Structures are given as C-alpha cells and as structure tokens.
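Meet my pick.
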Amino acid sequence: MASLFESGWLYLINNFSDFQLASLGSFIIHEGVFFLSGLPYLMMECWGLQKYKIQRKMNTPAAQEKCVLWLLLYHSCVNLPLMVVSYPVFKYMGFTSQLPLPSWKVMSFQILSYFILEDFIFYWGHRFLHTKWLYKHVHSVHHEYATPFGLTSEYAHPLEILFLGFATIFGPAITGPHLLTLWIWMSVRVLETVEAHCGYDFPWSLSRVLPIYGGADFHDYHHRLLYTKSGNYSSTFTYMDWIFGTDKGYRKLKALKSDQYHTDSIRPEVNTTLVKAE
C-alpha cells in the first residue's frame, strides 16, 4: 500500500512542478475537502432536519444560495492568489515535495504544533475582530449567519480571510514542511472549521470525547450572541478562552442546562413515588 502511494506521488512530482502542486494543487484539495464536507450540512438545512440541531432556526434558501455564490467568488479571488503568493516563502523556508515522504511521527508532531500555534494566533486575531470598529466594518460579514451551517465557516470579509488565513499558514510557512504534511494539515483544518460551524451537536462529536476541543456547540454559542458579549474566540481548542475568562457565559449556560436536565430527569421519579404512597 505504501509503495502504491509512493508510486502515485512519484507521478505527481514528475508531471507537475512544485509551484503547480503547492498553489493549484493545494487550491483543488482545499475546494474538494471544503465543499464535500460542507454540503451535507447544507442538505440537512434544506431538508429541515431538526434532530441534534443546536438552534431550531433554519436559514432561508436565499441565504444559503448567497453563501455558496460568495464563497466561490472569495475562494477564486482571495484564497487562490494567497496560495500563489505564499509559495516563495514556503520554498525559501525549505518546502519540498520530493521523496522520501515524511514519517507519520514527523507529520503528526508538525500538525499538532500547527494546531497549537494557529489556535493562539486565531484567538487574539478573532478577539481583536470583535472590537467595535473592526466588527462593524469587517467581521460582521461572517456574523450575518447567526445560525451557521458548515459552509458559512469561510464566509467572511476578504480582509478577514487574509487575516485569519495567516494564522493557518503561519506554522507551515516558518517550518517549510513536506507538501504531503501541508495537504494533510490543510485538510484537517478545513474539516475542523466546517464541523465547528455545522450547527449540529451529534452524540459522536469530537467535543464529547476530547474535553478541550471546542466543536459546534462551543462555536454556535459565539454566533448567536451580540458581538460585545460573545466570547468563545478560539478556533479549535477551548483552553485560551478558559485562561482569559472569555468563555464564562458559555460555561454558565452549560451548567444551567445540566442542572435543568438533572431536575427534569429526577422529577418523574418523585411524582411516581407520591402516587404509589397514596
């Protein structure tokens, strides 16, 4: 299997240049992962599926269509040029696509490092975007969707795409990784942000297994509040919000819901006991 994958990789590097693979190849992979992972949530919106939906409200077909059309424009006019102009920096820092392929241990360590670094930069950048002037003129575009669905994860003002896109590429840019590492990192990061905006809290969601992972419920809270009181600024993990106290409102709401759940689950037993006693 490994040799078959290496043969396929050898075909790529023999028929396409590093520039083509790093720019156009990365763009194609990004678009494929983004739309293939985001469209199922859009279909759930269209079908009106309510089970596991965090908010009951659904976006109108017009709002859904607007999101998709603007995304195609943003990706073509902002994301693709950003990938093209980033290539010289990656190349200067030691980027390569040649064999041998990096080991899984090396890739796993690098990708975990990218997640930690991206989360730190994203937190402060996102929090800065929630200041009055920047929210009004830039970040409010992203918050047009108070009830997010997967594809809204990248619906944003072009300046925000550049600003927060910087957080995603900063780690790879300063380390000059192998192209395979870059593609895996980009794919995992896209899957994470789509899931965080999906609007559904499933029993199998990663946030139910990994306590420090934010996920859809964590980020959905951020979208449905006023910008001055939102909190929950992190992208992937929750520890930055916990350290700086910007998740207090969310944790308070979760505690209230938990208390209400336990109260509702206990009350029927009390009533049943009283009936039997009579």
Notes: Residues 2-192 form one domain. The chain has a mean pLDDT of 89. The chain has ten helices and no strands. Residues 13 and 97 are 7 Å apart (CA to CA).
